[in-house]
Amino acid sequence: xxxxxxxxxxxxxxxxxxxxxxxxxxxxxxxxxxxxxxxxxxxxxxxxxxxxxxxxxxxxxxxxxxxxxxxxxxxxxxxxxxxxxxxxxxxxxxxxxxxxxxxxxxxxxxxxxxxxxxxxxxxxxxxxxxxxxxxxxxxxxxxxxxxxxxxxxxxxxxxxxxxxxxxxxxxxxxxxxxxxxxxxxxxxxxxxxxxxxxxxxxxxxxxxxxxxxxxxxxxxxxxxxxxxxxxxxxxxxxxxxxxxxxxxxxxxxxxxxxxxxxxxxxxxxxxxxxxxxxxxxxxxxxxxxxxxxxxxxxxxxxxxxxxxxxxxxxxxxxxxxxxxxxxxxxxxxxxxxxxxxxxxxxxxxxxxxxxxxxxxxxxxxxxxxxxxxxxxxxxxxxxxxxxxxxxxxxxxxxxxxxxxxxxxxxxxxxxxxxxxxxxxxxxxxxxxxxxxxxxxxxxxxx
Length: 446
Ligand code: ARG
Known about the structure:
Elements: H1 2-5, H2 8-11, H3 15-31, H4 37-56, H5 68-80, H6 93-129, E1 134-139, E2 142-148, H7 149-174, E3 176-177, H8 193-199, E4 204-205, H9 209-214, H10 217-243, E5 251-252, H11 271-294, H12 308-332, E6 334-335, H13 337-342, H14 350-359, H15 364-381, H16 390-396, H17 410-415, H18 425-445
Parallel strand pairs: 3-4
Antiparallel strand pairs: 1-2, 5-6
This protein binds arginine.
Arginine (ARG) binds next to helix 6.
Family: Belongs to the lyase 1 family. Argininosuccinate lyase subfamily.
Subunit structure: Homotetramer.
Keywords: Eye lens protein
């Protein structure tokens, strides 16, 4: 039972925030007359000593320490005697643990946000440096239309900015103080919660003690944010894994982010990207696991909730390393412009051929059919579509003229997409500018 019940192996990570919460609570107790000035001084200096022991790695955990809260209080008593017993007046581990967790996660959100913004910036700046590279855009993993390589990088960056915004919203909802809610009914000592809020730098105080001690919406939201971020990362990883194969040959991962095979000397494996992709499963597992724990729980605190911490810590650690590795992969990735260009084929310009006719007045449906005929004709002749003569083209539609040769130019093709959001140079540049602006704004938010 002791082994099952103890959370000490992992909730030690809350040691610092637990002490911070206790210091604030002790001050509030002094304000409400429960502690004398002398008591408060003793408690604060004892807590400071404990904090210092934790930071030196000198805190000795003993077998009967059930969790970080009981461990810190046990040590406080050893250091300052019976007055330590006054600290927990009107407080419960129920409001204490959730206060600790919110303090801890608030801080972690800022760290993760910095990693995420750095990663997005790496994508955006790479896109800015490589706007002239054109390669195939795929739908259904089939060659679809020529696009700029930057357009591809930015498509991922944009998804990550939504993740970054979402993290900001999660942080906002984490930033609510539950302390002063007691076990279930509230605090009977007239504790000044507004004072606690200021001491611990929360944006607001929770509204209802029953909800405050037992809701873990902020945990689920964080795990969901993390899951969606990981899904976006795994999609990008999958794209790059495909692009790094010999068959595509668009990119090469730097050696720092790949490994060799123990058996096949020629192999270079994209392990970093595979690990990123796999962690999406791990993180979502934590998210769904937490939701299953919450499902069907009665009001209010139940020990089931102790499980929240391992999920949160594991996901924080996973995101932290994944984001830093992803940044490294993108900043050191080598691209092979020639292979990207070689992968473009004239059939990818069939849409442009239809658009040529549209610009000469033909309804799109008809133009689509005419372009289809040209594709078919080229196939039966065993040549590429751009090898058809003007006469061949004219046999399909009299609207075709010698100027049709302009269609067979990939750079011209991408330059048509000037509408906002498109792949022309002007549109891609505008996207880069907007993302840079967004990154500046989000940096200020955290
Ligand atoms: N270690 C516990 C947790 O993580 C602290 C709260 C215990 N509360 C209780 N009523 N037993 O949730």
